[in-house]
Structure formats: structure tokens, C-alpha cells
Amino acid sequence: MVNTQDNDSSSPASGPAPPPIPNASTTTDAIGDSSGSRNFPCERCGADLTFSIGDQSLKCPYCGFVKHLTPPTGTVSEQDFEKTLQRIASKRTEVAPTQADLSQVTCASCGGTVQFAGTLTSQDCPYCGAPLQREHVHQATGGIRVDGVLAFRITRDTAQGNLKKWVQSRWFAPNEFKKRGVHGRFSGVYLPYWTYDTMTATRYTGERGVYYYVTVGSGKNKRRVRRTRWYPASGSFQRFFDDVLVVGGTGLPTKRLDDLEPWPLKECTPFNREVLAGFMARTYDVSLKEGFVEAKQRIDEALEVEVRRRIGGDTQRIHSIDTAYHAITYKHLLLPVWMMGYRFGKKTYQIVVNAATGEVQGDRPWSWIKITLAALVAAAVIGTIAWLVMQSS
Question: DSSP alpha helices (H): ranges in 259-335?
Fold first, then answer.
């Protein structure tokens, strides 16, 4: 959402019996194991509950027991950017109780850092496919607390169906790829994001260019030439930027993740560890300050577009843009993504799916035969049109 204020001077399923669980507890409270993870035991059979996307509750994969989650109270609040940076600088960063018990894993293959929560004890790395085991867990430490989380809404089966449609819509993909489709298993992971809000005040100077045409030459050399008249332009305006989203992790397919936008961020709820049960959750390794540098680049690009629009005319020259940023706030969010790595031929590709909206983005193979044929057809069509124009003249 963008608000603008101007003063411009220029213009259940049941399953097999659960395995024996030593020291199983029947309490509904979470319990911890030696690795520091959090388990949510089933009140009926003692197995570990996992978050069920269809039920939006915790569910036992063995006996089908469903534990309905208590609706979170409160809202996901904006945090003061400058005050948090000052707290970090003074080494008084708080360790949130909701994160202190999450267990962190570093993938030995790709170096990606993820968190285990709930019943997850082993799973392929969602970034490179390498297996991750509980014995490599080390305790998560410190950091800025998570403000909100958007629970998984799209099931693995739905994500697989959307992926199938995505494959069939790739015109320039090899026929074999479209026939075989993508084979692999989606891994559900909560990825860290920063959102930034800020009020900007911008002053600019430049020139407005207006096209006009003159006739030059004579005889066969007579022709019309486009020229430009320039007029000075300047102005000032205010613009509010709301929820500028920045991926908070490195080693991720950032461009593909950006293409998953927009996210229904208004549906985020205050952080609740229960919705993480059975999924990975990655910690941030892009700092709050580094994230705002990227957000500022996006804001500056949007402001340049706005300045050009305000200068107007047929073309513009920008001499200066001076912007002040006021009332900067942020949120630290966990957003749900289905991720899959797959192989086609001798290459590895990656697919990501927005687990709240179902949007699919990813890499795919290209058929150079189809691209070449399309280029030849386009060249033939252009040649035919040019020939017809010449004949008519």
C-alpha cells in the first residue's frame, strides 16, 4: 500500500500405530528434547503433532487427533528501526523466548542455515537437497525476535498441481520436459523476511523535454527530424512506503522469491511456534540494517519513476533527487514457501511456490530448437511485411 501527499511546485487421516516414544507425555504443553527442539505430544497416543495445513491446527499423523490452535491475540506490530539499531550497537539485543528453544542446523553441503521445530528430525535440505540430521544441530543464539508468521495455506498436493500447470505453460521448454514434468518432493520452509515502512520527503530538479519536428534537406534528402525543447522543472512531494519486503536470507533464489509477491501480509499473526511444527524455519542472516539498504534501493527506484512522472513531457532530464527518510519501522516475519530442486538432463533447477497464494516461480530448461524456429518465423514475417510495403510504394 502506498499513500502519497503532495506539495509539488511543478505539477485426518488415520494411519499406522505410532512408534514407541520413550517418556511420552500426555500434557498439552510443548516439551523439549536434548537438542533444544520443541515437541507437541498427542493427547491420545503420545506421538508428536504436526501442523496440518488443511485443518490449520496441530494434527497427529498416526491416530488423527486434532488439537485446535488458540487464535493469537493482538496484532503484528511495527518496530522502531533506529531504537533497535541502537540496542544492537549497545549489545543489549534481546533473545526472544519464542526463538530460544529452536534448534539451528547448518547444511554441510551448501552452508544454508535452517531451524528445526516440532517433530522434524531429518529432511533433505530445501536449498540443495542434501540430507540434514538432528545430530548436527546446535543451539540458536540471539537475534531480533520474530514479530509475525504467515501459516502455510497451500498444501503440498495443491503446490504440485500448480507446478504441473506451470510446466505446461512454458512455451519454449523442450517437449520431453513438458511430457515428463518435474519430479521431486517439495520441502516446506518458513523463510525470514524484513518489511520496512517509511515516510519520504523528496525534492527534485530537472528538465522537461517536449518533442517537435522540423523538415530539413531538399529533394531526395528532404526529411522530417525530431528535436526537443527543454524547460526547467522542480518540485517536492511526500510519499509513504508501506511493507517494502526484503528477503532476510542469503544463498536463496532471491529473484525467484521476489517474483512470488504479492504476499497477503495483512493475514500474518503474532509469532506462534506451533505453526512451525513439522516444517523448517530459517533464521535471518541479512541484518536489519543491511535489509534496509536493499529496501532503500527499491524505494529510490520508485521515487525516480515518480519524479519523471511529475516532470512530465515526452522525455526528462533529472539533475538532482534529495530524499529524507522519516519514521522508519520494520517487522521481522516468517513466510511459507514450498521449495524443490530437480534435475533435467545434466543440470539442476529450482522451483519455489508461495505457500499462501500458490504462485509458482522457478528455473526451467529451454528448447533452443523452438527458439531458433520462432526467430526464423519472426524474421520471415518481418521480411514479408517489408516486401509488401515496398511493393505498395
Answer: 288-311
**Residue 364, number of CB atoms within 10 A of its CB:** 18
**DSSP letter (8 states) at residue 16:** S
- What mean pLDDT, rounded, does the chain reach? 78
In contact, 190 and 332? CB cutoff 8 Å: no
Answer whether 248's CB lies under 8 Å from 332's CB.
yes
Instruction: Classify residue 159 as left (phi > 0), alpha (psi -120 to 50) or beta.
Output: alpha
Confidence band for 202, pLDDT divided at 50, 70 and 90: very high
Residue 276 or residue 357, greater confidence: 357
- What are the cell numbers at 329? 519501522
**Which amino acid type is present at position 102?**
L
62, 17 Cβ separation under 8 angstroms: yes
pLDDT in the model for residue 303: 97
Mind spelling out the 3-state secondary structure of 148-171? Answer: EECCCCCCHHHHHHHHHHHHHCCC
pLDDT higher than threshold 90 for residue 126: no
For cell 515516510, name the residue.
199
Q: Say what the pLDDT of residue 250 is.
A: 85
H/E element, 351: strand 347-354
Q: State residue 299's pLDDT score.
A: 97
DSSP string, 38-95: EE-B-TTT-PBPEEETTTTEEE-TTT--EEPPPPPPS----EEHHHHHHHHHTT----
Radius of gyration of the chain (CA): 27
Cell of 170: 512454458
Chain segment 204-235, per-residue pLDDT in tens:
999 999 999 999 888 888 888 999 999 999 99
* Cell, residue 125: 535440505
CA distance 13 to 73: 30
Q: What is the mean pLDDT of residues 310-335?
A: 96
Measure the CA–CA gap between 283 and 103, rounded to whole angstroms: 10
Instruction: Return the amino acid letter for 186.
Output: F
Does the model's pTM come out above 0.85?
no
Q: 3-state DSSP: the chain helix, strand, coil percent, rounded to 5?
A: 25, 35, 40
Delimit the domains of the chain by residue range.
2-11+75-205+232-362, 369-393
